[in-house]
Amino acid sequence: MKRKVIIDCDPGIDDALALILAINSPELDILGITIVSGNVNGKKGEENAKKVLKLMGREDIDVYIGEEIPLVRKLITAEDTHGGDGLGESNYPKVGGQVLYGGVDFILEKAKSEEISIIALGPLTNIATALNRDEESFNKIKEIVSMGGAFKSHGNCSQVAEFNYWVDPDAVKEVFDKSNVKFTMVGLDVTREIVLTPNYIELIKQIGGDVAEFIVSITRFYVDFHWEQERTLGCVINDPLAVAYFIDNSFCKGFMTYLDIVTDGIAIGQTLVDVGDFYRKAPNGLVLTDVDSKKFIRFFLGRIFKDNIKDIEKVINNNKYGM
Ligand code: BDR
Ligand code: CA
């Protein structure tokens, strides 16, 4: 049976890849996409989600803009990482059409009437606002899988903070403190392992077609950013792992723990993972610590390029390429 999901995101290059993966996954019934400000502002995020939907022939899925600023902090976006258009300066044409607002109400409406889960790929502003607006309906949500935070890994916005949780740490705090919904933190400890290396990008390019071209063109900027920033060859694609984990928990392992977050000062955005049970508080989330990155990448490519599975396997299984 398909699981009903809302994908809350801030597209974003890796969000776009996550949407492509989700759309190609028969286990998911995507009820809608809600947009939160993060990598780019809400309007740009909405345009980018629609570009992906058009590419995938799924313009039947509605996109709702949600909260446009974090709960307390000023919005900080990440065009340095994702390009001026949020999709690696690929500058695909805008899709247009009606712009829908009310992302938070959409989440609550669905939570009231259906059994839904949320895959959250951006800051948790929409999620926390839904929780604060109608706690009872919110707590009917079955599960939230959130890409964000870091346990032992260093951050990507400061030594200790990951981008999504750093943009709106107050929203994360609300969710950690008040939500009763099953929560999984897909943090940098596992997503950093997911690198789309130049060999994988070349493989995608050779497969060809509209989706391949889109992926190659949006990741170019991201690859350059990774080289400049941290001398990584290729790009870390965080968000698709949250989708994969939601579909199949066997991609990652982790542990239940009490979670908190720093909301101001030098360590703002740092997730506090109480591995030593110092706070003596009940666990409020599952933190993922280990990932089978090879299994993930096979899944990711296999799902998106189903018709080319034989070529993909031939290349990946050839030890020469180190894939
Ligand atoms: C997260 O931040 C964003 O830049 C990505 O889209 C991802 O959701 C990684 O820290
Ligand atoms: Ca994102």
From TrEMBL:
<dbReference type="InterPro" id="IPR023186">
    <property type="entry name" value="IUNH"/>
</dbReference>
<dbReference type="InterPro" id="IPR036452">
    <property type="entry name" value="Ribo_hydro-like"/>
</dbReference>
<feature type="domain" description="Inosine/uridine-preferring nucleoside hydrolase">
    <location>
        <begin position="5"/>
        <end position="297"/>
    </location>
</feature>
<protein>
    <submittedName>
        <fullName>Purine nucleosidase</fullName>
    </submittedName>
</protein>
<keyword id="KW-0326">Glycosidase</keyword>
<keyword id="KW-0378">Hydrolase</keyword>
<dbReference type="GO" id="GO:0008477">
    <property type="term" value="F:purine nucleosidase activity"/>
</dbReference>
<dbReference type="GO" id="GO:0005829">
    <property type="term" value="C:cytosol"/>
</dbReference>
<dbReference type="GO" id="GO:0006152">
    <property type="term" value="P:purine nucleoside catabolic process"/>
</dbReference>
<dbReference type="Pfam" id="PF01156">
    <property type="entry name" value="IU_nuc_hydro"/>
</dbReference>
<dbReference type="InterPro" id="IPR001910">
    <property type="entry name" value="Inosine/uridine_hydrolase_dom"/>
</dbReference>
